[in-house]
Amino acid sequence: MDYIASIQSLEKLLMTVSLKQRNYDGSSLSVQIRELNQLARVIRELSSEVSEIKYATSIVKSMQYVLMSNVQEIRAGGIRVLRYILMSEEVLDVMLKHCIDLLIMRSLELSNQREVERMQALRFIQQVIVVAPKKFPASLAAILVSITTGDPDISDSTTLACTGLLCQLTLANVPLAVGCGAVRALSRRLLQCQNAQLDEGIVLILLNLYNHSNTRRYTRLSNDLMLFLAPVTDIHYEHEVTGWEDAKKINFNTGGYVNTHNAEIQMRVECCCLALSAILKSWPGLMCLVSTHQKGSEKGKCPLAALVEVLPLASDQAKTEVLEMFFTVFQLRVPTRTDQHSVGLASISSQEPLSSWALDEGFVVEEARVLLPPVTAKQIDLVKCYYAMLLSVLIELGLFTSLSKVAIAENKFLSVRATILLGELTYLANRLLPGMFYQDIHSLPEIVQAAMDFSDLEKQNHVSDVIRCLEELHEMRKKGSKPSSLYLKELQKRGLHRGPGSLCLMCEVDEVALMSMIKNSQVLSTKEYQQWNWTILRTLFELNPLNYRRVEEGVKQKFFNRLYNFYKPKNKLFSAVSYSSENARKYSSIGCQFVTLLSNDENELAIFLSGLITDIAAELNEIVRNGQGDILSPFSIENTLSRDYMLFLGCVSHQNPEILALCKVYGSLLSVCEADGREDLHKLILSSLDFPQDRYCRSILTKLLTSSSFATRLYATKHLRVLLRTRAPFFKSWGIELLTMQLYDVDEEVALEAVDILDEACEDESYLLSLAHFNPALVHLGEKGVSFLTRFFSTSKGFSRMKNLGYLEGELQRWHDGYNDVYVNVVEYRLSEAFTTFKKTKDDDFVKKSINSMPIHYTAYLPVHLYGQMVKHSEGCEVLQKCGHIEEYARFLRNNIHSSSDPLKLKAALWALGHTGTSVEGLDLLMDEGVIHDFIRLVESHDTLSVRGTCYYVLCLIACTSRGAAILDELGWVSIKEVMQSDSLSVGSFSRSLTISPSTSQEIFFNGAPEPDPMTDSGTLRPPLPSIQTKKRHSLSLNLKRNLSAGKESNMSDLQTRQQGGSVGNLHDETESDSVSKRSSSSVTSPLTASSIPSSKLLSAAVPYITISRSTGRKLRKASRKEEGPSSPNPISGVFHLVGICLPKVKESILQVPPTDYIGSTSDHVSVLLSDISGESHLVHDQSRCIQCFLTKSHECHLTKEELRNVDGGNVVMPSEEEREAVRKEVLRIAYSLSNDLSSSGNRQNLKMLFTRFPWIAQDVCLYSQVLHLLSIYPYNVNHRRYIHNLFRNCKFHSIYVHQQCSDVSLPQPNPPSLDLYNESGSPAKQVRQHSKNISLTSDSMSGFEDNIV
Fold first, then answer.
1. Which residues of 1192-1218 are buried (b: 16+ CB within 10 A; e: fewer)?
2. Could you give the CA distance from residue 291 to residue 845 in angstroms, rounded to a whole number?
3. So what's the pLDDT on residue 1206?
4. Eight-state DSSP code of residue 863
5. Half-sphere exposure of 86 (CA within 13 A, CB side)
6. Which pTM does this prediction carry?
């Protein structure tokens, strides 16, 4: 579009729109709307030019006439144009000067039927908040408050939108929000809003005010909590129905009408729990609930204590909502509503696959990201730290006692949920708290006492069910989560079991038992696979292949031939089974066992495996030839079990990779990897093959990592994280090399994914040392790559190298100059993601987290800090000491202990000093400055509550070392320790034959130094590391197999589960048996066996927590620094390690908030910040806020005689000037009185009588403008506002048009833009050449750009 022509077209459109509004030329509505749309289009394209004052003034004048139209669509178009030109505070000043805010307020306050106009008005208000929040007009704030508080219809989208805008305004302009009553309106809205996202947003806004000392006086959140809790804590709670609420309300769940009283109580209970859930997940909220310095509360009692104490006495609905609230707070799955404990346990243990785990979505990489923990447990999870504090507070307030009472109560539906919640919290307390915090209540005395009462047999049976449920829940949590897909299950097996043949249990049975099982499997009797006994087949495939030599040749051939025919692709039996059928998983799982059995036999059974593999290879070749295939077509892959043929190949690649080479499968797979549009097969191949064992499979992985398809490269890179977390053998060598290769991918997303995986892997120092050998380049990846380089400062070699390259000084300066502040934002963003109910998607949208479908907790691991890496060695500590940063931060911290001027800088200093204290030598630097005592003072007394929370996390960092824990113990803080694997452990009654030596543990779990690649230079396989003397086959009786399957677990499995974090434990009973049989050949005897521990104390032995006494702390200080380092063995027998969680022995000192004086008014919504109108000042006409007087520049403020004759058909009696002035004042007086709800009924009647007696009032623009001014500064109910506007609905603005001329809206002459030959954007320099043509943009030329204002 030509620049000059566009300006001319804009002027022409403005004149046309203004003339049509003034003269009523009879144009149709569609023509006027089209012209407004054209005007909006031109202004949007020239937004940078027309936002200048010289253009904006003319546009605002023209749009003022448009906003006076009686047609809502035209007014909506005008508001849209005004929103497009609002780009600066100066333009807003012009709009306020022309009373645009009054006209916008009028558009919002009209009837609910004007959705198009109200939507545009709300968008305009949001633009004002974004562009000029400090100049936001009080008139618009008043209408937002009015709609938010006065309209209880939660289905009204305008009410929800106004509430959201009020939240934004409260953040952007606190004084104005407080003055107009926004804070009080939001507090009231909490008990009316059932929208979880908005409810959480309101709570966070109020908590943000409560967090800072300078804004805490604006809110009464601590007192309002009593109001929030009333529906739950008040047993006789009665909802007070106000005058503006209807007698009935629609139930939006059923569509019918319900009783208002019960519905309102139910709604308020739900809203109360929604608000409490958000409050309990923040430091300001927790302190607000726990603080006892509150007016109106019982001395020594806090709101949270009242909630916990009344829980057993509350109504059933209140109990249900409160229990669900605690499930949500701790991110636990809510059990289904049932009266049977077994059904409730099944509902929380079943793990339905998420939609993101589907083959066309994230598949195995997404499932592994959710289920599998990171490769190391050294990282500090801030979520666990907060849960430790919250749980200790709830235990102290008596939550376990209240839950026990609900669990043994008569209501079995509530009993199930209370029992499961009690078990979940008990297990969590066992992991996160020291014994001194729960030793008195951990035995659950209320439940034990009820179980000992033999007077009521029915109640005793019920209590027995509760105890049994708690026991089963604990056993289930010890086992951890199981993978949903067979692919991830197989990958995890390979990480736990090393070497070919290790996945087969290899049991031996006699000939009679074997023949009996073969016959009972029904395979010999029928060819119908649906009639086969698959349970017996599962057992048969776990046997040693040598057992089948005892079977008669004919029986054996018939048995295996029928199984082979079922799984053979060309027969279309197994491949035709629907993937969603009931037995699909069973067929695939047993199929994996079948091919594993065939892979371990080198004689008669090998021919069946060869035939099966050859058939699968033929199907792969078919894809290469025609691009689709039959059995492995995209449709079959998506809907049938044909996808699991790739899983069979993966099992063979782990057990017997040579047969894949003989059948030429690798060539077929490489050809398929080059096929375009088959990302489904690429995912299956990546998720199936055993890359660590076979060099051919490694070639396939490299092929997919360098594929031409972006989706394939990205998925293959993400799959490397799966291999990392499943402990793939030798990943430190070949895996790190592949990740380094991906750093140079042409797509930045792939490279950033590789950096993220490397960042996780390098938490283990051995991975970092392996990465250093490849000398990766990371600077080209931007901020993320530069931040990752910080990890190389953690080793002496890496530190020296970075120092020699000149990178050290620049990095220290970067962190000192501002990146410490950025670090604070990164940490708080991670905490926000973990605790909020909604998560951000890739499309910048927010979706609600589904707790029931998420089997793990959201985490907030601390990112790497430069100081934390440098203090791991003496060279780094020396540089930190010389640069003076630690001394500077310590001095800043000491000077701001009682100052709230700059919380961000204070948090940055806290994190810098906290990471410095993560090593013994770093602690020396802190002790020299004496800042640990300052940490304690900050966490107890700082005015900014979030700073207290940050300081608590910093103390958890100090608690990572034994010396730091000893120092904190002397200061009254207890550090939590966790059990680790001992030097040598044995398992129960099998201790004589099954032990694990230190070297064995290192080989199996790969916790030692970087291991060599199992591939030699020539590409042949090396044998497994020979430190474990194992037999080729192990014998184990079926009786032992049954015992293991029945769940007789050992202390060894408990400790291994404990070490892995408890999130993913035993994959399957068969997997445990495989692990036991594989490790049964070690000859080292364990000094600690399960048989030496009483069975009743297995729980306490598995999770022992001890505290550091003062004497222990003094001994630890005398230990050598090398032994006290964070990566060194723990000094207490190598059994425990510090998890980075500490708690104060007396919590009241850090959770109390000093009372503040409330500034806001309890009776008025308007403060002196807005206006101070007293006496009869509201009756004085303000010409600067009068629409007519401002436009006409006249002091005449009343209707003329000609205009009066047009009122009511000319039948109006001409009043005198004195009479009109008296009527005008009376209207203003009554309108002013309507701001008081107590006398609203009489005032509305009097106002209506005046308008009936004097019809000319409705035509007085000056009077209407003054009423609008009253509405802009006083707190009117939304119904009163709409009533007043309805009285003036016939007010015509046509009379003021005649005072303006067309020249008033003409635009100033534009200056042609200078030619810019280097302008690549194509506007407007490229189009100045068409200046001579003077192409004007008419209605016809813009018809193609017309868009709907909706």
1. beeeebbbeeebbebbeeeebeebeee
2. 36
3. 53
4. P
5. 27
6. 0.79
